[in-house]
Amino acid sequence: MGSKHWAVVGGGMLGLTLAFRLSQKGHKVTVLEADQELGGLAGTWEIGGIRWDKHYHVMLLSDVHLRNLLHDLELEQEVSWVETKTGFYCGGRFLSMSSVWEFLTFPVLKWWERMRLGGTIFMISRVRNWHRLEKLTVEKWLKRWSGEIVWQKIWRPLLRAKLGESYTKTSAVFIWAHTQRMYKARSRRHGRETFGYVHGGYARILNRLAEVLKQRGAEVIVGAGVSEAVVGGGGRIVVRLDNGVRREFDRVVYTVPAPIIAATCLGLSSEERSGFNNIEYLGIVCSSVLLKKPLSEYYITNITDEEVPFTGVIELTAVVDKNELGGLSLVYLPKYTMDEEELSRESDEKVKERCLSTLERMYPKFSRKDVVDFKVSRARYLMALPTLCYSEYLPNMETSIPGVWAVNSAQILKGNLNVNETIQVVETALNKIFENYQVQKSGTRSKLKGWLRRSWRLFLGRGRKLLSWRL
Ligand SMILES: Cc1cc2nc3c(=O)[nH]c(=O)nc-3n(C[C@H](O)[C@H](O)[C@H](O)COP(=O)(O)OP(=O)(O)OC[C@H]3O[C@@H](n4cnc5c(N)ncnc54)[C@H](O)[C@@H]3O)c2cc1C
To answer: Which residue CA neighbors atom 35 of ligand 1 most closely?
Structure first.
């Protein structure tokens, strides 16, 4: 494929990585991002005068795709790795579940329940054919292996912490992918979870991506929401922005959530449009609390008490060096939900009040006087929910409109949402894109060759006839 001008719609980690890889292949790229800043879910903001991620982000030693990208961006040396602890908040007390021993002696469960829990985790780790798990709800599958009590005491609270009430619609692929990832997070040496982060957080990664894109001659435009894309004259794609600007490109790749593709990409077939619209998305209300003192020693505290208004406590500074955050502690309080109303019902002030009063109840040493800053982030489209038989209904990356591609995190089939999986989607997409154009090109080439061969034979035949007539 000769050099083309590509528009990448969406400047999140997926869009920026895709733009970077296209520019490495010699293409001209324009990134169109609706927001005033790049990054999407991995975006950053100022909290207490410090720039850090709006949502908690860590990486695993096994995140090879992300680590390759960091290597290419010359940031791999900037990663720190830290062993962490995981806690449980059950019935008003904190319990550690950070090692195999703590797991085997977990006091909330009787010994035979622990055996069933361990057996279920072992079973999950042995599953290779994940397609079979798509046909069962996660609830049904876990109850089958762990039994009702372990389901009620462990699995259900954990699933609610990750999915809100939408766990009821989720297939068993979710827990399979989650367990595989958590297995990989454990260090070989101590069996503890080990997480990494880049010094400076995602601001550093995003700035570097923007920098290398510009060095490669790519355009990166923020405040450029795409309101429609339509095929114009000569097969070029006309993109209209929210601000009325009109641009033309050879190819367009959408990296935004599926319902936005359905709404803005004109000319999709009705099947494709409903395919995109039928993908169900989980949303999030995620509070960030910047504190003078840490809350606990755990990176993640899973909450099994249902009346708590957030589904986990993520103490980022159990992983990230406090000096990165001016010596302060950064804690995230996420609440995952699909309920549109729940996402917007409460004002930031109300969310703050409920979160702080709950922290007072949970942590006796916590004081409001220690709160330096509190911010609330809301995202409607966080993760495509792996519903039953999800992979069978997913629209193709290559749309029916020539030159228009739909490459987003909804294409993650064997994993849950994280940046590593997101980058893997980019790699799969690039293979498909270039294979596709290679086939088209070799198709055109073989047509041309056939035509030349036929013309040559015709010419020779006529020549021979002419020659024999002359003779
Ligand atoms: C609370 C939370 C915790 C997480 N923790 C981790 C973690 O620990 N480790 C990890 O690896 N990952 C984590 N993730 C996941 C990670 O953030 C995502 O995998 C990644 O950011 C997804 O990137 P994306 O580009 O696919 O999507 P997005 O970030 O959603 O990007 C899409 C972009 O498109 C833009 N856009 C939308 N509509 C338009 C339009 N019409 N025109 C132009 N642009 C448009 C949006 O503004 C956005 O910037 C976490 C996410 C959250 C929310």
So the answer is: 10
Domain ranges for the chain, please list them: 5-44+60-74+199-279+387-435
Q: Supply the pLDDT for residue 311.
A: 86
15 CA: nearest ligand 1 atom: 25
Give 330's strand partners: 290
Q: Does 264 sit in the ligand 1 pocket, CB within 6 Å? A: yes
Alpha helices in 267-315 (DSSP H): 270-277
Answer for the pair 170, 383: CB distance below 8 angstroms, yes or no: no
In the predicted model, what is the mean pLDDT of the chain? Answer: 90
From atom 49 of ligand 1, which residue's Cα is the shortest distance away? 40
| Rounded Cα distance, 235 and 219, in Å | 22
239/259 Cα distance (integer angstroms)? 17
Q: Could you give the count of Cα atoms lying within 13 Å of 238 in the half-sphere of its Cβ?
A: 11
Does ligand 1 lie within 6 Å of residue 286's CB atom? yes
With a 6 Å cutoff on the Cβ, whether 229 touches ligand 1 is no
452 has pLDDT over 70: no
Range 5-44+60-74+199-279+387-435 classified under CATH 3.50.50.60: yes
Residue 470 has pLDDT above 50, yes or no: no
Name which residue sits closest to atom 37 of ligand 1, judged by CA: 256
DSSP 49-118: TEEEESS---B-TT-HHHHHHHHHTT-GGGEEEEEE-EEEEETTEEEE--SHHHHHT-TTS-HHHHHHHH
The verdict on the CB of residue 161 being under 6 Å from ligand 1 is no
Q: What are the two backbone dihedrals, phi and then psi, of residue 381, each rounded to the nearest 5 degrees?
A: -110, 90
Whether ligand 1 lies within 6 angstroms of the CB of 34 is answered as yes
